[in-house]
Design a protein that fits this description.
Elements lengths: L13 H10 L1 E4 L5 H15 L6 E2 H8 L12 E5 L6 H9 L2 H9 L3 E12 L7 E5 L6 E2 L3 E7 L10 E4 L38 E3 L7 E5 L3 E4 L9 E10 L3 E2 L28 E4 L7
Antiparallel strand pairs: 1-10, 2-3, 3-4, 4-12, 4-14, 5-11, 6-13, 7-10, 7-12, 8-9, 8-11
This protein binds 2-oxoglutaric acid.
């Protein structure tokens, strides 16, 4: 499947590149052609109704902790990973949409590799928050050019579960210990600096009101989490695609799930083109930034 054009609606601006470097996150309004968002709607629906592919994060939180909040109605936080490996629509989205070029522009990269994708759906009435965390601790990678592109399929507000980013936290130099994603409880055996406790009203938290066609990109070292979906009618469907660029090395982290190709690499190896982490964009003479 090739999909619609790989050209973004508009270029990434210098101000957006500066914001990403300064804050560790940037909101790119109206940059993704709608056809790409539409392409994902059915595959996301198929995915979240398949209990083999998707984890019920609401049930996971209930298993990990008795501490509220827990959804008491039909609200569910549903999440899955690495859909691109078996679904052509997700593969087209991750490899042939404008996302790799957008990541390259923000990270000033010579090439971009696909690391993974995730589906992140909070149905109306989902009480579970996404715990504050840093993606880097979950990635078996080390380096600066690593980012997550967060793509909403619905309009998203603070009420429906906007992601909150701790401004500038990507510059801490710390790798934070991964948690269960729906609980602050750390993953057993995982290493890293404890995630700090940040009040939801902390003025350093940035949240964006977004529309389908927007993309929010954060640096892998940026601390972030998300609220519940308090709406009784509006869904909050999103897909994250995670990329790394040149000068990134593997760093195998204990206690964190690995991918099949991680058996073939050692910590310190450069990330090179491989079917498990393919190059999806290369700078060419005259490539748009
Ligand atoms: O969508 C969410 O609730 C969290 C998103 C997130 O943590 C990510 O994409 O890295």
């Amino acid at each position: 499947m090739s999909g619609p054009t790989s050209e973004p609606f508009r270029p990434v601006t210098d101000d957006e590149i500066d914001a990403f470097a300064r804050d560790g996150v940037v909101h790119l309004p109206a940059i993704l052609p709608n056809e790409w968002v539409e392409l994902l709607v059915e595959p996301v629906e198929a995915t979240i109704t398949d209990p083999v592919i998707t984890t019920d994060m609401t049930a996971l939180r209930a298993a990990v902790t008795d501490t509220p909040p827990h959804s008491t109605g039909p609200g569910r936080f549903l999440s899955g990973v690495d859909h691109w490996l078996h679904d052509p629509a997700f593969a087209a989205f991750a490899t042939a949409s404008p996302l790799p070029a957008i990541a390259a522009a923000l990270m000033d990269a010579e090439r971009i590799h696909l690391y993974e994708d995730s589906v992140l759906v909070k149905e109306p009435g989902t009480a579970e928050t996404t715990a504050l965390h840093q993606d880097l601790g979950y990635f078996h990678l080390d380096g600066d050019r690593i980012c997550t592109t967060w793509v909403p399929l619905d309009p998203v507000t603070v009420e429906t579960g906007a992601v909150a980013y701790l401004r500038g936290s990507h510059r801490s130099g710390l790798v934070h210990r991964p948690n269960w994603f729906v609980s602050d409880e750390p993953l057993p055996g995982a290493e890293g600096t404890p995630v700090p406790t940040i009040d939801v009203d902390d003025p350093r938290l940035i949240r964006f009101v977004v529309q389908p066609g927007d993309v929010v990109v954060h640096h892998a070292a940026t601390l972030h989490g998300a609220g519940p979906n308090r709406s009784t009618t509006s869904r909050r469907r999103a897909v994250s695609v995670r990329y790394c660029g040149n000068d990134v090395r593997y760093q195998l982290r204990p206690g964190v799930p690995t991918k099949a190709h991680h058996d073939q690499v050692r910590s310190g190896d450069q990330v090179v083109d491989h079917p498990g982490c393919p190059v999806v964009w290369r700078r060419t003479v005259g490539s748009a930034r």
